[in-house]
Amino acid sequence: MDKNISLTEYLQQYFGFDRFKGQQEEAVKSVIEGKNTFVLMPTGGGKSLIYQLPALLLEGTAIVISPLIALMKNQVDSIRGMQTEDYVAHFLNSSLSKAAIQEVKNDVQAGRTKLLYVAPESLTKEENIEFLKNIKISFYAIDEAHCISEWGHDFRPEYRRIRPIVEEIGQAPIVALTATATAKVQHDIQKNLSILDADVFKASFNRANLYYEVRPKVKPEAQIIRFIKQNEGKSGIIYCLSRKKVEEIAETLQINGIKALAYHAGMDAATRSGNQDKFLMEDVDVIVATIAFGMGIDKPDVRFVIHYDIPKSLEGYYQETGRAGRDGGEGQCVTFYSYKDIQKLEKFMHGKPVAEQEIGKQLLLDTVSYAESAICRRIILLYYFGETYPQDNCGNCDNCLNPKEQMEAKNEVIRALKAILEVNEKYKGEHIANILIGNKTAAIKSFKHYTLKSFGAGKDHDERFWNAVFRQSMINGLINKDIENYGLLKVNPKGHEFLEKPTSFMLVKNHEYEEDDDSGSSGAPSGATGGDPVLFSMLKDLRKKVAKRKNLPPFVIFQDPSLADMSIQYPVSIEELQKIQGVGQGKARRYGEEFVDLIKNYVEENEIERPDDFIVRTVANKSKMKVFIIQSIDRKIAFDDIATSKGIEVKDVISEVEAIVSSGTKLNIDYYVNDVLDNEHQEEVFDYFREAEDDSVEKALEELGEDEYSEEDIRLMRIKFLSDLGN
User: Do the bridges between strand 61-65 and strand 174-178 make them parallel or antiparallel, or are there none, so unpaired?
Assistant: First the structure.
C-alpha cells in the first residue's frame, strides 16, 4: 500500500464510500499495523470492511474463518463485484469440486488472492494445513467469533480449535469479529484465541430504526399471514426452531399467495443456495429459515424479521433481529412467545452435563424475562450487552407504545414462596399451582397435599396466574428450578429475604402468553362462541330453521365450531365457505347458499371490514391419508386393517373418517358397522341421534348405557348418521 494515499481514498477506490462509519477507521488502522484486534459491532455496523480493506492493501493473503458456506459465497461475490478480477477472493469448503479446489490453490500460491474464506472444518484438514504453511498470510480474521464461546448462542466446538491450528500453520495477527457478545462472551473469545492484548473496538448496540414486539403465540400462522399481507412486497425472514416447522410455514405461506421459500441445513446445497439467491434477487419476498443454521445474508432492505419460535438466547435473538433494516430504514421485529416453547427447550437440555444445563438455563431465563417484561425492550436488550439506554421510553417497541398493565403482587408472591417451602422444595410449579388453587389432582390426593395450609390458599386466581407468579419470581431471582432434579422449584436466599421483609412486587397483568389449545388452523375450539356474537346467534337461528325444514338435527347441517369460524372470517361466497373449519365442498354446496347470503347482508348492513385475505388456507398435509382412507372404505377394508397399514390406531382412523364426513363427504361404512353392531342396536342409536339436541358421544353413552355400547360404537353410528342423512 502507498503511504501517501489516505485510508479514506482507498475506501473510496475499493468500496465507493466517501467516509468510514463509527470506529471503522481506527479498527482498520489496528489491523494494518499488525495488531491483534477484537471488533464488536452490531449487524449492519460494517464489520466485514474492517478486514476486507486491510486484506486488499497488505502483502499476502488474509485467511477469513467463517462458519457458513452461504455467508462465504455471499461475501466473495460482493468483493468480486467491487474488483476487476475474480481471483481477488476465493472460498475453500466442502461445496467445491476437486478441480475448483485446485484452481483456488493455484491463485493463492501465485499471490493473486487477497482473501481466502475457509470453514473451521476445512481449516482442520491436514492437506489444507500443509498447503497454508507455504503461503504468506497477512492475518487471520475470525468472523462470527461468538461461535467460540459456550456462553454464546451458537457454540461450535471446532471454533475452539482455531488457536492451535493457527500456531501449526504459522503465526500472524488475529482479528476476531462478532455482532453479539456480552462481557463474558468477549472474555471467553479473547482468552481462547490468546488475544487478551487485542485492541478492542465496540460500537453501540442500539439500533434505533428497529421496532421490537412480542406477541402471544395464538394462531401464529394467521397472524403471520395478516402481517405479511399488510406489508406486501417487502422482504422478510421468518425464523423457526425446527426444519419441519420451516417446511410447514413456507408451504402455508405459498398456498396463501405469498412468495416464500424454505431454507435449512437439511436441504441439498444447490436448493439452499438457489433459494437464498432468489431472496437476494427479490424473486421471493419471504425466506423461512432455521435459527440453528443462520442465514448469513447481507441484504440491506430486509423490512421484517419474525420469530415463530422464541430463540434460546438473547444473543441469538439480537443477531437474528439485526438482519432487519441494515440500511437504516424500517425494520419490524415481531416475536411469537408461548411459555410452552420455553418448556420444550428446557426438556432438550435434560441429560446434558450439569455445567451446560446451568448455562442453557441462564440464557433461557434471560429470554423469558425479555419476553414477559413490561419495561422498554431496548433497555433490556442493551443492558444485556452491558450498555445503558438513557431514556425510559424508546417510542419504538410494543411496551413503550402500548404500556402493559401491572398489579401489586407482594401477597401472591408470599403465598407462592410459602407453598414451595411447605412441600420441602420437592415439587414442580404445575403441582404447586394445583395446591394453591385447591385442585385435588391424583398426585395431590396420593401425597395428601390437600391437608396443607397452602391448599386452596390461592383459589382467588387460576393456574395460569400462579405459573406467571413463579416465572416472574424466577426472573427476579427469588426462586429457581433445580438442575439436578429437573424442574423442582427452590427458594433462593433472595426469596427467603423477601419472606422476612416483603417489598413491592409488580406483576405484569393479563400476560396471556400461552399457546392456543385449539389445533385447528382457524376458528374457535369446539363448543366456543364465535368472533362476532351477534352473527353467531343469527347463524344458529338459521341452522335451526334449515334443520327443521329438512327434518334433521341442527348439528348435521353445520357444527358449532364451523359457525364460530364463520363469525370470525365472514365468508361471503361458496368458495370462501369451503375454507371454513369442518366445511367441505359437499356441505358448502348443499347447505351453504342461505348462510353465505345471511353473512353478506350482515356485513353490508353493519359496514364490516372483512378479513377476507386472512382466511388461512391450511396445507393439506393430511390429504394423502384422507384419500387413502376414502379409497380403502370404497374397497370395504376393515378399519383395523387400514390402521395397521398406516401404523396408527383404529381410533385415529375413526377421527379421520369423522373429519371427512363432517366436511360433507358421503361415505358408506355399513360393511364395518354391520360387523360391530346388530340391526337392533344400530336402529336404537340412529333414533337417539335423530332426536338429540347435539352430537355429544358422552351424552349418547349416558342415555343408551355404557354397558351396552362402547365409545367406538357410538362414534361409528354417529358417522353413519351424519353421512346417510347430512351428506
Answer: unpaired
CATH pick for 533-614 out of 1.10.150.80, 1.10.3720.10, 3.30.930.10, 3.40.630.70: 1.10.150.80
Residue 139 CA to residue 142 CA, distance in Å, equals 10
The Cα–Cα gap between 399 and 701 comes to 51
Tell me the per-residue pLDDT of 606-639, one tens digit each, with 9 for 90 and over.
877 765 444 555 554 456 778 788 888 888 888 8
pLDDT value at 164 more than 80: yes
H or E element at residue 81: helix 69-82
Domain 210-337+373-401, second-level architecture:
3-Layer(aba) Sandwich (3.40)
Range(s) within the chain of domains with CATH label 3.40.50.300:
7-202, 210-337+373-401
The amino acid that residue 228 corresponds to is I
141 in Cβ contact with 175 (< 8 Å): yes
CATH 1.10.150.80 domain residues, the chain: 533-614
Min mean pLDDT across 108-112, 301-305, 486-490 is at 486-490
Task: With a cut of 80, say whether residue 100 has pLDDT above it.
Answer: yes
**Helix axis angle, 126-133 relative to 162-169, nearest 10°?**
40
Sheet-wide strand order for 260-263: 210-216, 331-337, 302-307, 235-240, 286-290, 260-263
CATH superfamily of 7-202: P-loop containing nucleotide triphosphate hydrolases (3.40.50.300)
Q: Which residue has the cell 498447503?
A: 131
- Give the span between the Cα atoms of 270 and 373, in whole angstroms: 42
Read off the pTM.
Answer: 0.59
Does residue 362 contact residue 314 with C-beta atoms inside 8 Å? no
Three-state DSSP state, 303: strand
The chain-wide mean pLDDT, for the chain, equals: 85
What residues form DSSP beta bridges with 288? 238, 262
pLDDT at 114: 96
- Whole-number pLDDT of residue 484: 55
Max intra-chain CA distance, the chain: 105
Is-contact 154 146, C-beta < 8 A?
yes
Per-residue pLDDT, 517: 38
For residues 18 and 90, the model is more confident at: 90
Question: Cα separation of 11 and 485, whole Å?
Answer: 57
pLDDT tens digits for 383-435?
888 788 888 889 999 999 988 888 899 999 999 999 999 999 999 888 999 99
- What is the secondary structure of 92-139 as a DSSP string? ESTTS-HHHHHHHHHHHHTT--SEEEE-HHHHTSHHHHHHHHTS-EEE
**CATH superfamily, with its number, for domain 623-726:** ATP-dependent DNA helicase RecQ (1.10.10.1390)
